[in-house]
Amino acid sequence: MTRRRRLLLVAALLASVVVVTTTGGFSSATAERGVHVNVAEDANAYLGVEQAPSGTENGTTNLEVTVTNQFPAGTALTAVEVTANGTTVDFAERDAVEPSDERTYTFTAVPCDGRLTVEAQGEGVAVGLNRTVACP
Q1: Tens digit of each residue's pLDDT (9 = 90 or more) over 51-105
Q2: Domain carrying residue 48
Q3: Of 78, 89, 87, 73, which Cα lies nearest the Cα of 127?
Q4: How far apart are CA 105 and CA 98, in angstroms?
Q5: Cβ(78)–Cβ(94) under 8 Å?
Q6: Residue 10, in any domain of the structure
Q7: Assign residue 49 a region: left if phi > 0, alpha if psi is -120 to 50, beta otherwise?
Q8: Does residue 69 sit within a domain?
Q9: Longest Cα pair distance anywhere in the chain, in angstroms?
Q10: Global pTM?
Q11: What is the CATH number of the domain that holds 62?
Q12: How many helices and strands in the chain, by DSSP H and E?
């Protein structure tokens, strides 16, 4: 075998090894991004919620609920539904709850171990929370 023929054979062998093996590229990739959420007390959250029970007797109370839109300027809430004791009230039914606006409603005969649910929505935002009814 001549030197030239041996050189061509080695070159052909290297070329076939390169064709058979991967090139080190990839066809797809996956990445995970973490999400960090800060939890704030109701008074400091984007949606402020205050409960004021009164007239507690026989395990029920009259519950005054105040909701405050604490989102940045320009973030109006177009739906703010508050549910207690099976009664749902939409605080934004007549008009949107603008930033820094408050709405209040008094629910009657709410069980002291009951749940208070608040769901609010606006353009690009949605907030929901569940609280236990606070009785004195």
Answers
A1: 999 988 999 999 999 999 999 999 999 999 999 999 999 999 999 999 999 999 9
A2: 42-132
A3: 78
A4: 17
A5: no
A6: no
A7: beta
A8: yes
A9: 109
A10: 0.69
A11: 2.60.40.10
A12: 1, 7
